[in-house]
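Researcher: Please translate sequence to structure tokens.
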Amino acid sequence: MKLHHDTDSKASNGRMVTKLLFRLLPVQILLAAISAVNGVVSGLFASNFVGETAMSAVALFGPINMLIYSISFMLFSGATILCGTYMGRNQFDKVQGLFSVDLALALIVSVVSVLGMAMIAVFDWSGFLTRDEAVRPVFNAYLLGQAIGELPYILGNQLSAFLSMENKIRRTTTAGLALIVVNLLLNVLFVTLFRWGAFGLALASSLALWVFFAVEAEYFLSGKSQLRFDLKQIAWRESGALIRIGIPGAASNGYQTLRGLIVNALITAYVGSVGLSAYAASDSILRFFWAIPGGMLAVSRMIISISVGEEDRQTLTDVMRNMFFRFIPLMCVISALLILFAVPMTRFFYRDPSAPVYMMTVWGFRILPLSMPFSIMCMHFVCYGQASNKQALVHILSILDGVVCVAGFTALLISRLGMNSVYIANVLNGVVTTVVIVLYAYLKNRRFPKNMEELMVIPKEFGVPETDRLDLTVKSMDEVVTIAHKVQDFCQDKGIDQRRSGLAGLALEEMAGNVVDHGFRKDKKKHTVDIRVVYKDDSVLLRIKDDCIPFDPAERQKITDPDDPAKNIGIRMVYRMADDIQYQNLLGLNVLTIKI
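Model: Translation complete:
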């Protein structure tokens, strides 16, 4: 049988994926950096205006914050992956139901978190975290201030994920910048002027989160969004699937809560509170740079989930290739710069080189960045495992990365290496998880992986074989007619009758030509139209994808002109003759699916 495949389409699809990833990346990094920016600001004001005990309070709050984030992450990652899968299948009604149930669950979690944190602070139940009589009251005050911001923090995480799906980059950027500015100004007011100490640190962060949430929520309340919260549309039946999909990835954050408690206990026992202060200082700035891998994962997660829904092997592997050949090298450069500037970053917090906390912090900046490139690979494979139901791989990586490796290596090394054992343990954790990913592929394939599909262990039955699909790329109007003939020939080779084969060619020519004629001319950017034709169950599916301005042909086909009856006649004819036509704008891409 003749193999129909345009090799140039692979390269074109890869370029489109790369362009999409890097277009979404800055905003996702900003969103991932929000809590990190709060941490940096809190750390700077704590060390310079409150004192070392406040830095210990910030460090002690870390595991609690990670626990709350892990629950929030479970909700928005499960919702994002499930929504992406439904989008890939053109089931937008289910996306609406998921949006509503996700926000409802997030609201419940928020209320429970606020009440729990407030009770611990007010009734002084924090003894399970610290017995230090000097640190405990400071920590209680800090915890009470943080409780005020938990509701906008958790709900804001959910809205950020859905704003990205609606391609509202400016809205999320504005919200993030507003948070940073408000947090900084309120810290100046509460900490340096009012002298509210640790409570002022936390209150500034909490009120800034309310501003962040308000900016995001206004879009969904304005009636302009595709997704709208509706009590009647809350799909409670989807809660189980949402949580099931979200738990494995969130488990990693949950494990990190346990890891934080164990590591904090080891530091306190072997190093003392000075070690906690050093760890909090280095972690507060590095957490900002950890937002880069977090942002990389966020954009990949959306595309991975949509690709799994579409059973699109090519896009799925293109995402992972970008991770290996673009994201990881970029992170290596950033890590090297962090190591180079270890001393200047330390001096933001501590200025006396003779103080023990000074060199402990310096070594944190010198060693911890080495773990960042490894983490990108681990996080991407956890995300891919979630979307493709590889639960064993997800759970193994989550527990190793979350707690076993870092806590285990720290426990083994801390008596000999002191504070540096914590930093080295993070690097060894990255090495172990990388080995596990390769070993998993080896066991599944019964040989070492030779290509990306084997490393990802993509099942052979995933998607349709190359002989039953045709991938094409259109760059100009001259190519449209030629490619339409290729589509017609492909259909006839598959035994499709002449009428439907002709309609497939006509639909492709009309719809792709429309994109070239209108979309290509709207700006000065270089565009392509990626086309996939799939033969499945005696039906032909045409998927036309482009990165031009949003364009829904359903709206165009409704437009008639009494003076020109032939206007849009091609689009109207395709809509009348096709079995089904679905349009979506996914992450800024126009995706049109036609079933014949």
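Researcher: Any highlights?
Model: The domain at 466-595 is CATH 3.30.565.10 (Heat Shock Protein 90).
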